[in-house]
Write a structure and sequence with these properties.
Length: 196
Amino acid sequence: MKTGKTLRVTCKGAATAPLKDLHPLQGNLKKLPEKKYRKLRKTLLKHGFSFPFFVWRNKNKLWILDGHQRDKVLRRMQKSGYEIPSLPIDFIEAKDEKEAKEKILLVASQYGEMDADSLSEFLEDAHLDLEDLVETVDLPTIDIEKLLNEAEEKEKKDKSLAYQYQIIVDCENEEQQLKLLEKLEKEKYKCRALIL
């Protein structure tokens, strides 16, 4: 069932290969829940195929070392009618299957650590809005909902601080000023004494 829709390829690799010639090597190492499938599918539709598959060539077969979840999504998209063109691949060397599988674990490893502060700083520097990315980006070490809620609270607070209403009271002397200041502070008003 062809839909007339073709996946865009937005990267280059050392070579290209049709999806049918690529074979997954990781087995059941990782699962792809339906919610994450939909997110990755949205990412592929929005940005195209943006990163080459890492493959190991063994006995004239191309074994996927990195890109298994994209492979699963692309195969489902193909079944639903999308045309999947030949895809960019980069070759990774391994002397045997054992070393190739070890490299699957290496590529899946995350050595750098990201936290909410470093992500917020990155987003600010790049002028990116987390709300625009939440549908396509998956950052398992970050509580995105909490970060979005904090940003919303900060925005509300910033808006409330955008307007300040002031009363200026002329006092006869410093003693009167301090008494009035004390009284207002007891009533939980934010106050400060000024001498003009």
